[in-house]
Fold each of these.
Amino acid sequence: MREQDASAWDVWGAARQGRKETNSAGATTWFNWTQWPDHGPDANVLGNLSGIRALDLGCGSGGNLAHLAALGAQAIGVDISPVQVAKARERWPHLDVRQKTAEEFLADTAYEFEAVCSVFGAAWFTDPAELLPLVHERLAPGGVYAFSHNPPALEGCYGPQASQLPSPEKGAEPLYVKRWDYRPDRWTEILQRAGFTEVTAEVIPPPDGRRTGTLLVRGVRAS
């Protein structure tokens, strides 16, 4: 199944344009928690990143990871897709990007991280019952875990859901991966049960003229 996921994300990633060279403020790197450009909070959600070790789970083509490194973090990115990893390495050859599932990396690494993030990444597409204990184990005391993705698409449709990735080829059948959808209050309960403290979960409103907000969840490993 994970090999099937990697193939689906390869097809999706190959057709997706990379991050533009500069944002509206003229910056060459920046952090987006939402699906809307230049909208929502920045990397300060993770705290002071200078000199710390940070991890991006499902880093894609590396846009957010590059900003973590630019802010002074010892940043590592992990992605299941060889295509996305290759894109990240080509554009930002100085970045440390690993081609693995989030679960594999967390289970194998001896590193301890002060910040772990996942933006429309592994946190959405991995069973939280499997992922959260691994993240909690690799977080340093006082470390922050934060992730974002779309809120549940339909009221009452919670837990594992089929997520359709449109194929770039005309007439080709769509690709499917599994995602996990919960309301903010339920995500709060799930993180608390996994040992996280200071948990917050909110939906960031979309920009004017858009309908879909962004769910942002944050928790801390107790000191």
Note: The chain has seven helices and nine strands.
Amino acid sequence: MNALSSSSISRALLSACLLVVTGACTVGPDYPPPRSSLPTRFAESTESRARPLPDDGAAWWTSFHDPVLNRLIDAALQSAPTIAQANARVREARAMVGISGTALLPNASADAAFKRNLGSQNLPVGVPPGGLGRGVHSNLFQAGFDASWEIDVFGGIRRGIESSDAGYEAAIEDRRDAILTLAAEIARTYMDLRGMQEQLDVARRNLVIQQDALAITTVQLKAGLAPVLDPLRANAEVEGTQADIPVLQADIRGAIYRIGALVGRTPEDLLTQLEQPRPLPALDPDPPLGLPSDLLLRRPDVSAAERRIQQENAKIGVATADYYPHFSLTGVTGIESLDASKFLTGASLYYQVGPSMNWLIFDAGRTRFRIQAEQARTDRAQATYQQDVLNALRDVEAAMVTYAKAQIRYRHLKQEREQEARALSVARRLYASGNENFLTVLDAQRTLYLVEDQLARSDRDCATDLVALFKALGGGWQGTDRG
């Protein structure tokens, strides 16, 4: 019996090995990386800027050299709900990879049971099918192990693992995209905040100038040196500027509250830190842009779209494998006895082992339709990828133009402010000498205030436009995270 058992087991194992050896094929199409026709450099770029971006691992927002901004973004990456959601999706995708991988391994289970049986007395005389006589009690002791192993002859399981791997990598890229989007939104709102604080400072400085002018015209009116219209006009300018200040203060509070929501902290935690004005950070007028081909790796949305092509492509192989037979090696062994005293003896041993095959011969075309559906999903993923590449190129080109034009506007406004400041100084001297009326001074003050306010807005626009450029580039020169 032992020789027979060894021979039977050997033949079963040999059959399984033959199945493994012959199972070298993997059905379904292999993944062809997508090709995109990209220009050699951006249309709005110069040769000096079309240089590869440094990949030193530095976060792009640190290029602003603003410690407050750095702390805000670092805190957001630790506590923001959007990042927590992205991290959870990565963990889920990693678990799915593990689940897919276990399909290549054997499954084993153990069981044990005790049964107390009583034969029915209403059956005819004789031994019934259950093996018990009428009214006879018996015990059944059982314990054993079951094992099964599906042999991946045609690669359906391996295609499933390939799909899960690609889905995991796509989830990592989605997390990078969430980090990029969150950091860019915090940086943009932070630049808005500092820009509005600069506008508030402009309004307050102009209010002091206007109040001085009101005081001068009031004194001159009392001395009979100015008409009554001059202090009225001066007071109107004061009231107009005072009306602007609370609007700016409300906008500043709103920006702080938005930053708090993005960072994942209550507004009270940030008021003390952010209400203190700080100047806008110095901006790089000519940041490196890299090459269009860099976007394929640097933009996380493009990378995620590429990974999803492979994820869907592998599912074609999973569906195709159902056209072919499924082979398994199964085994059962244990001990079974009606007598507890003989339960652990060799005579109680039993086993079953051998290969099996299951082949779905007819399914009314369901497998064919599944393959067609997976092919359509793959085609859709490829089209999405191509559109994402075009969108990335468009985003960079548009952001470059916007940032370049914003800098030009800022330079012109800066020169205009210098001219308007001189004009106000001349108007005051002429008014003080009696050679010009006060309306000229008011016009010069009003124009200077408007130009300074526009200059502050332009400074803010330059900063937010540079943030948009970094985002369009996929985070400037931040290295790719595969963790």
Note: The chain has one domain: 23-110+156-326+378-472.
